[in-house]
Every structure is written in C-alpha cells, then in structure tokens.
Design a protein that fits this description.
With 83 residues, this protein is mainly α. Helix content is 86%, strand content 0%. It has helices at 2-35, 39-69, 77-82. The longest helix has 34 residues, at 2-35. The radius of gyration is 29 Å and the shape is elongated. It starts with a helix and ends with a helix.
Length: 83
Amino acid sequence: MDWVVALFVPVVIFMVVVAPIWIIFHYKSKGRVSHGLNAADRAELDEMVVVANKMAARIETLEAILDVEGPGWREKPAERRSA
C-alpha cells in the first residue's frame, strides 16, 4: 500500500502542476511559430540574404583569381605530394 501512495502523490502533483504549464507553453510556442516572421525579423533576414549574396560573389572572384595564379590550389594536399 505504501508504494501506491508513493507513486500516486507524484503523479497527482505532475497532473495538477506540471502538465497544465507544459501544455500552455507548448501551445504558446506553436502559436508563435504559426504566425511566421514579424517585420523586424523579415528585414533582418532580407539583409542577411543580401550579405550572403555579396559574399558568394566575392568568393567566386577569389576563386577565379586563384585559378589563374595557382592552378593546383583546389587539389587536396595528398594529391599534390604524389604528383
């Protein structure tokens, strides 16, 4: 009988205190996700896209320069040693 009470009390406490809080926060977070991005987040994301596109263009330029100046720069170090 003691083990039943020992198990029953934590289950009741969980169901009365923890479970409702857990459910409330779960659906609050689901609500935030379903609304999507707000204006500030969208503007920041657009800015990051612009910066990423500039960086990609710079990388392409650097790779083109390296292709001209050092034709074997893309090879792995092990491949260069054996050749």
